[in-house]
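A.,

Following up on our hallway conversation. Structure tokens first:
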């Protein structure tokens, strides 16, 4: 499982000209699921999302988490996080899980995130053509890969 996390001052996702999810200050999390992802991957990624200290404290030091600040998360599925660009100019997405595998894992990810995050979780729609607007605050962008984790 891969996640690209961006600290934002605001963000929204629109589907067919209607806002599906919208947050103020918080995190946008693009989430990619691959074959073999399991509950352990979900738990690790969610723990990082909720507790990563990437928000500034009173001394302007990144020392606070989304949970510390009760900030919200906008979660957006994005299979392209598993793009393989080693050969040619057209990325391969063979590592991205097919919908019959990834939809249940994505739904479980949202369930665990909603349980463990102190703020609200907004979403796009799995597999939809989405327009994501965000204002990256910092900018702060963090890459997570549950297959490359260390505790």
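Then the amino acids I'd put at each of the 151 positions:
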């Amino acid at each position: 499982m891969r996640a690209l996390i961006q600290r934002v001052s605001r963000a929204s996702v629109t589907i067919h000209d209607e806002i599906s999810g919208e947050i103020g200050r918080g995190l946008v999390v693009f989430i990619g699921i691959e074959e073999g992802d399991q509950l352990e991957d979900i738990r690790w990624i969610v723990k990082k999302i909720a507790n990563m200290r990437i928000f500034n404290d009173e001394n302007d030091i990144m020392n606070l988490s989304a949970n510390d600040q009760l900030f919200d998360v906008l979660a957006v599925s994005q299979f392209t996080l598993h793009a393989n660009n080693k050969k040619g100019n057209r990325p391969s997405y063979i590592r991205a899980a097919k919908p019959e595998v990834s939809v249940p894992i994505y739904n479980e990810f949202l369930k665990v995130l909603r349980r463990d995050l102190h703020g609200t979780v907004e979403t796009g729609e799995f597999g939809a053509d989405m327009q994501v607007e965000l204002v990256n605050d910092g900018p702060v962008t963090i890459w997570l890969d549950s297959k490359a984790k260390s505790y």
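The beta strands are 2-15, 18-23, 26-32, 55-56, 62-64, 72-77, 121-123, 131-145. Curious whether your intuition agrees with the design.

B.
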